[in-house]
Amino acid sequence: MSSNFDQAREFFMQGLAHFQAGRYADAERDYAASLALLPGRGSTLTNLGATRLILGRPAAALEALDEAVAAEPDNEQALGHRATALAELGQSEAAMACVDRLLQLAPRLGHAWSLRGRLLKERGERAQAASAFSSAIAYGADAELNGYFLASVSERAAPAAPPRHYVENLFDGYADDFDQHLVGVLKYQAHEVLVGRLRAMERRFERALDLGCGTGLCGALVRPLARWLEGVDLSSKMVAQARARGIYDELRQADLVEWLGAASPGCDLVIAADVFIYVGALDTVFASVARLLDAGGVFCFSVEEAGPGEDFAVRPSLRYVHSPDYLRRLAARNGFELDALERHPIRQDQQVPIPGLFAWFTRH
Asked: Domain span at residue 275?
């Protein structure tokens, strides 16, 4: 028995070292080996569940975490990870019950209030969600991230940009199924609308920049129109998918606003299909594009439309919206002439078309 305990402890410590070094598959293997020798140990089950969550396997994580909570009902870490697993599996009622149990035990736990806020937001209970996000900030959770969440469900002013790590993690997790889900399920068509008008120009572009290129859906349509095509995206996994298409002459993994600020001038097309919903304020973007574009160059993009009196705002969908007046002011300030501003659906959300604004500008 003592030998089993010592060996199980050794596997556990190895798993912990792997986890801390980011070697999650190795950590999972060693935690499982520890449990084989010493079944039912709450700390090991909790760590195994946390590891499986990071590996993107919430169902397998939930199995371990259910067992951990059964063994140790007041295990706060296990309850927190279990609530996350349930939320990722779409079991929102069970996730809410779990997070409420956790908050009974630890009422000042910021990350639990953040999860509670996200669950309430999904229910459409905005006032209660706003209160939860405020509590999350007050109790030490990520202030930038929870401030962004709070702005999406309240009258609080939208931050000028979303948290970079939120957007990067969102699209890294989305990359493998991106094309199939976006086009097949969400009926995405922003790229088709934008490039359709470019085709009608019967023009060949010398150097085109595809902002927020994703997996290359838009770039594939632009490629026949451009002698040189560059793409940039914040998500490394999206860039890897785009590279596999073999359509770009150059690809960069970077924040597009930062990249625009450092890019070399001398292009005649900048396109951003369904990208600025994750950028926020566009003042710097317009100024940078104006610096890069040659006279006569085209700047085209899609956005979701803001309501009257708003320049830009963030919605409960956690996407930014922008007003036509805001776009026109930025264009006038930076030397652009508006060629066309049209309204078309961008994609669907729960089978409801999401209306979009599509803009084509020419640089003076």
From this structure: 168-363
